[in-house]
Amino acid sequence: MTRIDGRKFNELRKIEIVTDFVKFPEGSVLISCGNTKVLCCASVEYFAPKHVEEGTGWVTAEYSMLPRANRERSRRDISKLKLSGRSAEIQRLIGRSLRAAVDLSLLPGLTITVDCDVLQGDGGTRTASITGGFVALALACKKLVDEGVLIRNPVKHYVAAISAGIVDEQPMLDLCYEEDSSAQVDLNCVMDDDDCLIEIQGTGEGRAFTLKEQQELVELCRKGIRELMAMQRAILEG
Amino acid sequence: MTRIDGRKFNELRKIEIVTDFVKFPEGSVLISCGNTKVLCCASVEYFAPKHVEEGTGWVTAEYSMLPRANRERSRRDISKLKLSGRSAEIQRLIGRSLRAAVDLSLLPGLTITVDCDVLQGDGGTRTASITGGFVALALACKKLVDEGVLIRNPVKHYVAAISAGIVDEQPMLDLCYEEDSSAQVDLNCVMDDDDCLIEIQGTGEGRAFTLKEQQELVELCRKGIRELMAMQRAILEG
Amino acid sequence: MTRIDGRKFNELRKIEIVTDFVKFPEGSVLISCGNTKVLCCASVEYFAPKHVEEGTGWVTAEYSMLPRANRERSRRDISKLKLSGRSAEIQRLIGRSLRAAVDLSLLPGLTITVDCDVLQGDGGTRTASITGGFVALALACKKLVDEGVLIRNPVKHYVAAISAGIVDEQPMLDLCYEEDSSAQVDLNCVMDDDDCLIEIQGTGEGRAFTLKEQQELVELCRKGIRELMAMQRAILEG
Amino acid sequence: MTRIDGRKFNELRKIEIVTDFVKFPEGSVLISCGNTKVLCCASVEYFAPKHVEEGTGWVTAEYSMLPRANRERSRRDISKLKLSGRSAEIQRLIGRSLRAAVDLSLLPGLTITVDCDVLQGDGGTRTASITGGFVALALACKKLVDEGVLIRNPVKHYVAAISAGIVDEQPMLDLCYEEDSSAQVDLNCVMDDDDCLIEIQGTGEGRAFTLKEQQELVELCRKGIRELMAMQRAILEG
Amino acid sequence: MTRIDGRKFNELRKIEIVTDFVKFPEGSVLISCGNTKVLCCASVEYFAPKHVEEGTGWVTAEYSMLPRANRERSRRDISKLKLSGRSAEIQRLIGRSLRAAVDLSLLPGLTITVDCDVLQGDGGTRTASITGGFVALALACKKLVDEGVLIRNPVKHYVAAISAGIVDEQPMLDLCYEEDSSAQVDLNCVMDDDDCLIEIQGTGEGRAFTLKEQQELVELCRKGIRELMAMQRAILEG
Amino acid sequence: MTRIDGRKFNELRKIEIVTDFVKFPEGSVLISCGNTKVLCCASVEYFAPKHVEEGTGWVTAEYSMLPRANRERSRRDISKLKLSGRSAEIQRLIGRSLRAAVDLSLLPGLTITVDCDVLQGDGGTRTASITGGFVALALACKKLVDEGVLIRNPVKHYVAAISAGIVDEQPMLDLCYEEDSSAQVDLNCVMDDDDCLIEIQGTGEGRAFTLKEQQELVELCRKGIRELMAMQRAILEG
Prior knowledge:
Mean pLDDT of chain A: 97
Radius of gyration of chain A: 18 Å
Number of strands of chain A: 9
Distance between the termini of chain A: 36 Å
Strand order of the largest sheet of chain A: 1-2-3-5-4
Largest interface: A-B, 35 and 35 residues
Oligomer: homohexamer
Strand content of chain A: 25-35%
Structural class of chain A: alpha+beta
Order of helices and strands of chain A: EEEEHHEHEEHEEH
Number of helices of chain A: 5
Low-confidence stretches of chain A: none
Helix content of chain A: 25-40%
Largest sheet of chain A: 5 strands, mixed
Shape of chain A: globular
């Protein structure tokens, strides 16, 4: 089997992570996964939200697509006065995933917001946002330590994410838009550097899927995430 | 191990499904899962949304909690002018799950909206909405066939959902609110009557989880869903 | 003259008031007036709004219909980003009516919000909300006294409400939906246990009405309200 | 008893109705009732709303206060993104009242919107809006007849409105702001030229009120409305 | 060349500035410029916004058109839930212009909001709002001094505004609606009593314009503004 | 005098215009002016808005800043449910400027929307949006001609924009953020390739400015715009 873009079934698209594409955020990366491009900016603010326990901090995320990130222009949320349900769902997922990377008790009185703005969308924008958003978050944390704001680095785990799916009855890793559009099953995994799951979300689009298929897709994701983490590590520790 | 409410680790809460609690919707049920109560109403409208292929129909869902469904009163969405992100996420899940139950090409020019309004929330409201919402949807479809609007019943699969989680390192089925609040891992499955997954969503709340744990939780859900489907079947075919 | 449902011109529909249908609110009732069903939940919160005099409290109400409470499904307010004008008008009426029942100076620093959610609407939802809402409010006040939060019960009057109207030139009590739809005149009274008016709202829908007709309708309401108060009393003092 | 502004208990404030204060609307008046000033503009548009029966038309109203119409500045609705509940209630009342003045079947395919914008508020703005709004509506209808758009004038009744209330246990007509602020009972009547009620709305603010008191207040309103109609007639037929 | 309304190319429309048209604001004027009528109300509030330096105050403006201020009725902003872009732009301009008139350090802890509500629009509403708004602001400041709230009057400059434009290749001052509709170039100037510019905004509507044309239009505006300031002075110092 | 970044008073910042940074829009550029970076995307849609004359088309623009485009993070418009007044003003300016570049009668039945999203803001974002937006628009038009959708290219003029200001009494071209923050006068010009003005907007921030100063600033802008147009030309015709 050959995929539409010539990849093997278990092969990631070309990943590129550019740091400091913009200069104001405490941490920022422009991540490209094939033609998907997401600008991830981590901003530190010196307050913690009300719902957070005294003496700890918070990490949250926002997700949005530029109007012409896609094949067709879509209206901005503000012109409809509604955050799209899809964006609401995705930014909650990113926030939960990134909180799993840090020890919030080491961020006392701070909020870090990771803005993920999709400049170009070609499938896999939510997982790219998590993978890139983690690097932006880690850069911001490093900066806080370097500047003496924090004594210990709150990052306790690497976190990365990828999708896998079944297209034409064939499991494959990291679906691009065209594969995603015709996928029968679509599954995203967020994992840490212990090979453990933080989030799993799977959807039967064209048909339901067996428990065995589900396991195969998780295994594919596990492979991809290991590769993504190697790239994250090269940037952050390189 | 004994659970807070005396159940065994793989035991569902008491489930009750009352049909025709309200009389105007084409299909309606009041489903109780322990103390969780959700009113599920399926409404038939004679148009199909624009994005739907000519000659087919649509099934969608809306989810909301009454202000005092919970331990504390929460403000209505309308007073904040924002649909809560959590509701947006849940109603998208319910909609996808229920669409997997029907053959949309057998609903030409129709939209069925399943409104899931939580009257009392004690954990598991999204899975109760799917399990109860399926019955409401099936009742509405049956009515359309009985009235001659549809020739063939578009329901092709039973669909039900349940959660499982890890609490105090112990996997257990169908978490109630108190268990859910302290769960380390929380995982929801939506399955059909072929024992296949339609949706799976798992989250590590307190910690990440291994692939093996994930499988155990899915197995627990599978057991619960079989029991739920027996109840659905008793009502619809009884 | 016989009415559509066989009642006499001055006869109420069958009234049922179920307490504790849901368990979290400090006071709650499910009131049925014929086919109209309203869930009334009184929630106590430990703050008073800014506009309230120091040392006193507040009672307020919110009113909403579930999307399929009626013969046709209506869109949720949140999807239109607007509270319906009708709901705004009705919840202001309920709030004023229930405040007349209590001595606000005996609720220092507290707010009680009575949520009236119509599960099924068949005419008379606003008056059912007041009649049922009063019972929920009184139950909440009783609880506050029982728990020692309040020393004296702030309820100073029973409050109930009913409609009367002119249909086919015939005055009648407690219009159901079908009567309401073709009513020439529609009038609601809210009264206390001294036979005094708290609110009166009358509308000529098909034609204007004489002062004499207005008095007849008020008298019909007075009769109905006495009967409703007997039921309220049976529940609260029974 | 002398009133704060020297009036007798059954005396209206000074009423002034200036036509053509603005020149674009098909009908417009600036009505002053004491210090209350409302600009009422009737606009004709060549469409009928969907809910209206084929071949007929519609009359509707909108009500708003300028930010500094009152003793203190209030924020505009748009800055809160919410139509105030009070405005929603009042504009529904004005709309119902003005529709009672016309035969909608004589306005085929037309909508007349009467905008009532309070420039200065000193009590009685809703009744001034109805009394002034009727004149604006009648002027617009006359213009439509004069221009040959309509063959018959759709106005079938004069309509005017006034308030009465109980202040310090004394019933009085046409409350100004200071009286209104301390009123025990406040009641508005909308009547036609047959001495019949179109709308009645009474509220016990400080206390409930007897049926007899209610009658007295209605009688006071009847007297005031007759005087208002004489002024309307002088302008429209003068 | 004769203009549509008989004016000379460098002639203002008839200007009328009526003070105290409404009585609650600390300063108010109804300004008419030909058929354009704007009610300008300056309201003093005893707080300063957060972004303002400690010990100083703020002046801001809001601008709105009544629905039937124009030839056709327009929907209210609140019914669209959006402040019109045009209003947003204009109220920012008015605010900047009026702040240039005062020394904010002499308004410690105060906010003055100038509401400009267009009752009738016939071209030049933004410049009329500035010219009239300045008088309302100056009246409010005078009142604060007279009442001893302020020791020194914070007004340091007179401020007025006017438009000029090119219509049929002819530069002219103070365009009325009909001229404005067919103008090739439209330019507004806000100036102070030193003959200096505070704001300049010019737009080529039908065609671009040379630097020389731009200067001619500014000169026309300068002439008109001198005349407007003479009127302002007569009212404020007369 | 030396400027903060070493430029001469009449020197532009380093300008870079990258085409095809994203691939879906019909035309797109990433323009950098010093540290200011704006992504400009022109999208073609096959409809014309209602207000447009039959047989012609429309060009419009939207402007937004990413949350962390600036030194401090700002909340997204959607979380406030309001388009910022500043964005509303700027996008209207961009739209008017770009419409001056094209003959709308040569875009029959088409709308081109130019989205200007500021990735990094360091002063001059609105003028960068116009200069870059023009290139995106021209690329889109060229594509429409190349694909045979349009027979003649509707672009009739080059359009570019720049700011000039007075800082410490010194006129200078193309203010960066630090200069802009302390500018006494700020003036933007939009010009075409005939050396004519399309838009001019000048504001006295710290003080008013003379007509002579205004001329000087316009001259500075003219010089800058000629240089910008040379760059535009090199890209579009190179």
